[in-house]
Amino acid sequence: MSDTTQSTQTSAAGRAGNPLWSSRLAFILAATGSAVGLGNIWKFPYITGENGGGAFVLVYLLCIALVGLPILIAEVMLGRRGRQSPIQTMATLARLDGRSPHWALLGWTGVLAGYLILSFYAVIGGWSMAYVAKAASGDFTGASSDTIGAMFGGLLSDPGTLMLWHSLFMLIVIAIVVRGLKSGMEKAINLLMPLLFLLLLVMVGYAMSTDGFGQAVTFLFLPDFSKLTTEAVLTALGHAFFTLSLASGAMMAYGSFLPKGYSLVSTAATIAIVDTVVALLAGLAIFPLVFANGLEPAAGPGLIFQTLPLAFSNMAFGTLFGTLFFTLLLVAAITSAISMLEPAVEWLEEKKGIGRLKGALLAGGSVWLLGITTVLSFNHWSGLYPLAFIPVFEGKTFFDVFDYLTANIMLPLGGLFMVTYAGWCMKPQALAQALELHPAVLFNSLRFVMRFIAPLLVIIVFINQLI
């Protein structure tokens, strides 16, 4: 039996007891739910503010097109071809393609990256949950910027409150993962993701009425390359991975449930476009409020929690819109978190024979424990720098270390090896069959990008960072 034939049979077989997505739209919405989350609405605005605006945005868009999208295609393709957890998928594909069994390490590092990200992502998701309660109780109504700033500062300085919301968030994620990815997810995402998109448009419409909208557009879309640094380029590249859920095992796991016959390229492009539009809309919703209220765009991780409430405090029906927004932000965070926990649970099921309930409790419980270090990073351990002996981690708390290590090192490196495997280790015939891309010129162009452009850009950024 040829490798290609065997691969096709492996792909067609699927996993016992694990149904496929019911349609291409279901997969797109689920994958978009994984991609669209806190990375777009929480992280993208604040790192854009920290890195000078327009030039950073331009580099970010280039990273999405030339690096993020090809790697997204490769990851989903590998997942659909292997039909198992990321770890088992890479081990299986390495055997099918006659490659070293060490390629299984790529699956391991992806699952580990998702595990580390989820440990601090759950804490930030807890912030969203806390702000649902604050918005619903009317705490934002008529509040000044100083009051809202003090509200956020008070949340971060209280480890007990942070632990409560962190724990509730992880309990919700674990409870959903226990039921399986498909059960209940498709219907919820079909409703909630369009609502999130609509609410962002409402927020942009409100932002257009403020005095800071013109300044925000200039800040976001007029590049000032004097503000662009090597670290900013690495941050843009890292966020392209973070926001698309690349190299964290999530897209490979979701791809394993994707039926044959759906175009990988157009599906991945749709996910990338929607994800990027949401990020840009978030910037257009937030930065006008920043400038109109005289706030600092480089405010850091608390940017969204200190600026959006200002809009709700002055809007008609601000309590309603604020509650809806943070509820939907919370749901987006949960759908992303599910996709990061699922690969570890899948592996425990497949390799260790552990039931889904026990596997979700084990994986989710250990993530919760690790998340305590992030909780304490904002208060009692705010002056503790665990890896200060390494220059790049000097002055970084546990939260900063996990954020930098995953977004700037693990995800780009994982993506580099992933696209390298697709472009160099798979035979052209197997890759063509897996991608189902016609005409041949399109396939050859994408394979060229996978083999040369995407890997080269990642390597250049790493070399510059080392220098």
Describe this structure in words.
The protein is built from 19 helices and no strands. By secondary structure, it is mainly α. The protein has one domain (3-466): Hydantoin permease (Orthogonal Bundle), CATH 1.10.4160.
The CATH topology is given as: Hydantoin permease
Q: Supply the CATH class.
A: Mainly Alpha
Q: How much of the sequence is in beta strands?
A: under 5%
- Return the domain count: 1
Q: Please state the overall shape, judged from the principal axes of the Cα atoms.
A: globular
Main sheet record = none
Radius of gyration: 21 Å
What gap, in angstroms, lies between the N and C termini?
49 Å
Can you name the CATH architecture?
Orthogonal Bundle
Strand pairing plus helix content: what structural class? Answer: mainly alpha
Low-confidence stretches: 1-16
Average pLDDT, rounded to a whole number, is 87
Instruction: Work out the oligomeric state of the chains in this entry.
Output: single chain
Helix content: over 70%
Order of helices and strands: HHHHHHHHHHHHHHHHHHH
